[in-house]
Design a protein that fits this description.
It is a single chain. By secondary structure, the protein is of the alpha/beta class. The strands form two sheets. A five-stranded mixed beta sheet has the order 4-2-3-5-8. A three-stranded antiparallel beta sheet has the order 1-7-6.
Length: 161
């Protein structure tokens, strides 16, 4: 598929506006598949691919976490780093309403609102990471620091040991 004919997602338009370089990886997919399957389809190492998770705190505020696809979010660690007593994952049916993205296409860049966002500290050591591009069938590869800037995020240790 020619890059010039590619339909840009909101996340891609934001990265373009910020003059952040990224590489789009596309794949054929009609419905949600988990991130491990996507990494396999694109022949990407798991440690380079990150998923975006959305949580809600006791305060009813939403928090976004970007973590490696083969790891689990440690809700206690995550709550502590965002100053909440506790966090819980939002229900799948709430994803689009809260973020503007659908399940499987959710990315920390360009959500409906700017939520407090934390990228797992493991990303800092990587040259590039791959995250959802804002729709099913698109993944974006970019420098972790560029993702951090575009998402208004900070790094934190938030995955389960």
């Amino acid at each position: 598929m020619a890059k010039s004919k590619e339909i840009k997602t909101n996340a891609m338009r934001i990265l373009d506006r910020m003059k952040i370089l990224y590489e789009a990886h596309t794949y054929e997919c009609e419905e949600f598949v988990d991130a491990l399957q996507i990494a396999d389809m694109l022949h990407l190492p798991y440690e380079k691919v990150y998923k975006t998770l959305v949580t809600v705190g006791n305060s009813k505020n939403y928090f976004v976490f970007v973590i490696p696809i083969d790891k689990e979010l440690d809700l206690k660690k995550a709550a502590k780093v965002v100053g909440e007593k506790s966090l819980s994952m939002i229900h799948v049916k709430e994803i689009q309403q809260v973020t503007g993205y659908i399940r499987g296409g959710c990315t920390a860049v360009g959500m409906k609102k700017q939520y407090v966002t934390r990228i797992d500290a493991s990303a800092e050591k990587l040259e590039k990471i791959v995250v959802s591009g804002g729709r099913i069938g698109t993944q974006l590869e970019l420098k972790p620091e560029d993702l951090r800037k575009a998402a208004g995020a900070e790094y934190a240790d938030v995955v389960a040991e």
